[in-house]
Amino acid sequence: MAEWVQNLMDSMGYVGILLLMILENVFPPIPSELIMPSAGFAASRGDLNIVMVIVVGTAGSVLGTLPLYYLGRVFGEDKLVKWADKYGKWLTLSGKDIKKADDWFDQHGTKAVLFGRLVPGIRSLLSLPAGMSEMPLPKFLIYSAIGSAIWASILAGAGYLLGENYDRVEQYVGPAGYVVLGMLAVAAVVWFVRRKKAQS
């Protein structure tokens, strides 16, 4: 994958970075932890400009959030509430739970979008609840852009500084993402157990 990413950037330059970052949000198996450090390495060689790498990477990341955001808008809270009331008992999920989750996102959505963009594994998925809770598009884009710019700067900067060893960035960022995902999984299990106890 690393060689394919590098070849695409070598042949398409900034357009390649833009396309890869859009795809990374729609198809998470293409990781930004590989794309942006590779672009940073290309900038360290003088092939690209580091500022343009960050700007284009951020733009691609933000554009890539839109498909899932609009998917959330299309289905919306009402349809999900109806679905949960009809089928959600198998997941111990009710329409009331969907409403509570939506209310939480209404209160904390900006922070979730901003900081969630820095977390590998869930960064692209946050667009779905943002759309579902009907977060205004301008607000969603602004917070996505800020979070994405920070993330792109960290990764591209690391690739720029590490040079030929840019592929090590993924080794350090990857485990951090697994820790966060593990914490989320534990929180989900705790919620599930408490809900079961409350129902019994």
Automatic annotation (TrEMBL):
The chain crosses the membrane at residues 12-30, 50-72, 140-163, 175-193. Residues 30-160 form the VTT domain. GO terms for cellular component: plasma membrane. It is a multi-pass membrane protein. Keywords: Cell membrane, Membrane, Transmembrane, Transmembrane helix. Pfam families: VTT_dom. It is found in: Cell membrane. Its main location: membrane. InterPro entries: DedA_domain, VTT_dom. This is DedA family protein. It comes from Deinococcus arboris.
